[in-house]
Design goal:
binds nicotinamide-adenine-dinucleotide; eight-stranded mixed β-sheet; 14 strands; Dihydrodipicolinate Reductase, domain 2
């Protein structure tokens, strides 16, 4: 394939992120992608999405989609269904973009690694493709940056406030056995991580670590990697709180530094913010991400440096561009397929992220305070 080739692509799973991000992007990026098929077990969903984006084929299963001679597939089904979908797609010889988390156990990621061969496999870490993240990496690489503390704090009310205006279609017609299998897969993954049956808070926290904090772990790994700080990092602390809705982890950094990452789910307040602050000895760099579903709403990068006087501070707000992270990641996927450009969000990175998240989940579960009557 040459760099200008159109990639024949299918979307498997056209739910929230499929409709809010991937379908409109594939439709919009038609110079790069020939959007041949949408596959979703819900007939309501696949028909609505096919009609909205003039996709010529709407099918129920990934296998039916793969029969249409695809080059690539974008997988956006629920987490426990990722492994089977990725392996099926690789067995059919197509390139794979799969939403995060790539899989729900490290053993599953290893199966994907073993099956990858020469195919492109990219994970849906769109924040790594945000223009402001790219600029932050440039700023971190500018001179001898001496990082003392990395702080990531997310306040997340879930998606509703930011997608309500998009008219997303949901279907109650997913076959019940598929829903049951997906739930069973999710429960098995938590049991696999914990070694015993989880309680409700643990099950919720597992989802918060793997489904939400995964973005922050991947971003932190990426930013630290740009400074030559490569994992695995030593886990110093981890917590779950608010019955598993809130999760956090701390890592030790070289030279007695520390990183703290936390994700708070607060559905009562329709405000999203992800703040990533790199406290370095000669500057403070801060990214502030808006809800990822908002379009043309750039992430802010603010840099604060001394100006050489006692109190003087230079504050610079960088605007890299209005490009979308969700769009850039699929452009990068196209590029890797057609030109062999290296993948940024790799399977190897996803494996390191998952190891760190599962470690943190286990420590958080072990360290829960006893709160029963008379135990506090
Ligand atoms: N990158 C991001 O910011 C981001 C945001 C949201 C979700 N995600 C990820 O994308 C994936 C999809 O999440 P979502 O929120 O769009 O989910 P969703 O439940 O809204 O949509 C999933 C779609 O997949 C279909 N489906 C296919 N196989 C299925 C199966 N075996 N069981 C049940 N449904 C099946 C459903 O019909 C549904 O249309 C998840 O892995 C999630 O973690 C990523």
């Amino acid at each position: 394939m040459t760099g200008s080739a159109r990639v024949r692509v299918g979307l498997f799973g056209a739910g929230l992120v499929g409709q809010a991000a991937h379908a409109p992007t594939l439709w919009d990026e038609r110079e790069r992608f020939d959007f041949v098929v949408v596959a979703d077990p819900s007939a309501t969903v696949r028909q609505a999405v096919a009609s909205r984006y003039s996709i010529p084929n709407a099918v129920a299963t990934l296998e039916e989609a793969l029969a249409l001679d695809l080059d690539a597939v974008v997988i956006a089904v629920p987490d426990p269904a990722h492994r089977a979908a990725v392996l099926t797609a690789l067995a059919a010889g197509v390139h794979v973009f799969c939403e995060k988390p790539l899989a729900v156990t490290v053993a599953e990621v290893d199966e994907i690694l073993a099956a990858r061969g020469d195919r492109v496999v990219q994970v849906g870490y769109m924040k790594l493709h945000d223009p402001a993240t790219e600029m932050m990496v440039e700023r971190l690489r500018d001179g001898q940056v001496d990082l003392v503390h990395l702080s990531v704090e997310v306040s997340d009310p879930d998606q509703a406030p930011f997608v309500d205006h998009l008219g997303l279609v949901t279907g109650r017609d997913v076959p019940p056995e598929l829903v049951r299998d997906t739930r069973a897969g999710a429960a098995a993954a938590v049991r696999d991580a914990l070694g015993v049956d989880p309680d409700r808070a643990e099950a919720r926290a597992f989802e918060a670590f793997l489904g939400s904090l995964v973005h922050d772990v991947s971003l932190a790994h990426h930013l630290l990697g740009s400074l030559g700080i490569d994992g695995p990092l030593t886990l110093a602390a981890a917590a779950m709180f608010d019955e598993g809705r809130g999760v956090s982890l701390d890592w030790l950094l070289p030279a007695d530094g520390r990183a703290h990452l936390e994700h708070l789910n607060l559905p009562g307040v329709p405000f999203y913010r992800e703040r990533v602050t790199a406290y370095c000895r000669d500057r403070i760099l801060e990214l502030t991400f808006p809800s990822p579903y908002l379009r043309h709403f750039p992430t802010r990068l603010v840099e604060r440096r001394p100006d050489g006087t006692v109190a003087g501070l230079e504050t610079t707000e960088h605007r890299a561009s209005y490009e979308e992270a969700f769009r850039n990641e699929l452009r990068a996927f196209h590029d890797s397929i057609t030109t062999g450009a290296p993948v940024r969000a790799t399977v190897e990175a996803a494996r390191a992220d998952l190891l760190a998240l599962i470690d943190a989940f286990r420590l958080a579960s072990r360290g829960r305070p006893a709160t029963g009557p008379g135990e506090a």
